[in-house]
Amino acid sequence: DFTTPEVEDAVRLARRAALLGQSGLAIDLLLAAIRREPKHPQLPGWTVQAADLMLRQPGREAQARSLLDAAMTRADGADRSRIEALLATLPAS
């Protein structure tokens, strides 16, 4: 649940962690940001980032689907398209 005082800083750290191959840390930071700021306008984008990283790890499909489904109601435009594309890659539940 660690996050920074400014949620945007946590998201930047998450992106950096993902680039450095620390996907677990990146996911944890993004999930903390999502929990901390559930109404943030960038939440759908954060969700896409977290779910994309989760889908690269075996056994996290259900968690990624749940996250994407929850964000779908707040997403529009490119974020909505990215969410739909990720959901399309998942097996039917």
Task: Describe the structure using short key phrases.
93 residues; single chain; mainly alpha
Helices and strands: which structural class? mainly alpha
Helix % is 55-70%
- What is the H-and-E element order? HHHHH
Q: Which of globular, elongated, flat, extended, rod-shaped describes the shape?
A: globular
Number of helices: 5
Low-confidence stretches: none
Account of the 3D structure:
- It is globular and about 35 Å long.
- 29% of the residues are buried.
- Helix content is 69%, strand content 0%.
- The model has no long low-confidence stretch (mean pLDDT 93).
- It has helices spanning 7-19, 23-36, 43-54, 61-72, 77-89.
- By secondary structure, the protein is mainly alpha-helical.
Which helices and strands, and how do they pair?
Elements: H1 7-19, H2 23-36, H3 43-54, H4 61-72, H5 77-89
Helix pairs in contact: 1-2, 2-3, 3-4, 3-5, 4-5
Précis, in short:
Helix content is 69%, strand content 0%. With 93 residues, the chain is mostly helical.
